[in-house]
Amino acid sequence: MLDRLVTLQETDEKIVAFQKEEEQIPREIQEKEKTVGILEEEHSQIRTTLDELEKQISDLGFELTEVKEHQRRSQARALAVKTQREYQAVQRESDVARKRRGEVEAQIKEFIEEKGVIEESCHEVEAKMGDEVKVLKKERNEAANRLKKLQSEREGLEKTRAVEADLIDPVLLVKYQKVFERYRGKGVVRVGGGVCNGCFMTIPPQLYNQVLAQGGIHQCPNCGRIIYVDQE
Description:
Blueprint: H1 2-80, H2 84-166, H3 170-183, E1 188-192, E2 195-196, H4 205-212, E3 218-219, E4 226-228
Parallel strand pairs: 1-4
Antiparallel strand pairs: 1-2, 3-4
């Protein structure tokens, strides 16, 4: 009966290993999706900055047109003035317009240069994002195939397990399953030198002797695992 339990446990361990791998696959894809999401957010922020810059350049363009028109009108009026006082007033107005034109043109140049730098950064992020999306698509397909294969293999093991479980005493099977599910791992362990290989605690000498005698089913008083010794 112990041999059957050990065999059942080996099957259960394989099933648990498959389950863990199946659980890990979606997490791996989620991590890759996070990477793409971060790049998408970065791209969105860059596009927002570019849109704001383009609006500022457009607004300055309109202002530059108005300033130039103002300059043109000032120059036309300067030709028609009749007094020195009027000429000085027109000249001051023209100087203000010329100064403002220079400021606006400088701002436009600065914004255009900044826009070029940001556009280059945007292209880099787009290229990186495109590569990551391709990788994500490929990994999704591979993950789906891998998951399908794992599930198929696990289902085969579960059928084998059902046959193995039918060969074990129902009361003992329930006892084993409780311990195995508790630790999601070893439910049946060897005892060597009076020490349980599950919790690595020393078991009482009297119990150890009973285990050595290989009579009946015994559990470790510390962790509850079913214990046995290797037969010579």
